[in-house]
Write a structure and sequence with these properties.
Layout: E1 10-15, H1 35-50, E2 57-61, H2 64-76, E3 82-86, H3 94-102, E4 109-114, H4 118-127, H5 129-135, E5 145-151, E6 154-161
Parallel strand pairs: 1-4, 2-3, 2-4
Antiparallel strand pairs: 1-5, 5-6
Helix pairs in contact: 1-2, 3-4, 4-5
Keywords: Hydrolase
Organism: Rhizobium paranaense
GO molecular function: hydrolase activity
Length: 163
Amino acid sequence: MTRITPPPSRIYLLRHAKALRPTPGQKDFDRALSSDGYAAAEIVAKKAVDKGYKPELVISSTALRCRQTADAIRHAMSPSTKFRYVDALYDATTDIYLEIISSQVTEDSVMLVGHNPIIESTLEALIGHHALVSAIPKGFPTAGLAVVDSTPSGWVLTDFVKK
């Protein structure tokens, strides 16, 4: 498991919602959410708010499908939630995701909106392989939201929200 010293003391990891297949000549970066993806992003955002989940900062990949997923979060969250869009989250490594999280030393709760397989491997780095497989045995679904809290013994998956 990876050690990140709080803050943040709560990390939200959100995989972008389901995207359309690329059209001929379209860049992967420019793929939009499908209609099912839009609906799933809105459902997960509403469920998160209903559970009282309120990240102070949302950091999203600049890929279109992540920005659209982050927009669903923006519409559901309080106006005080800050949003940043970071190119480095697209086509990144687990180390980059973890570095971005650990560099957030003024916010107590941070959400990353990113891509698989890196969002899943970031969760695994935080909570360990056994906890990951126990919580999501079929893998990290699109529009899935992991809620990870810091404890004295390390990071623990507190909740997993899906549509």
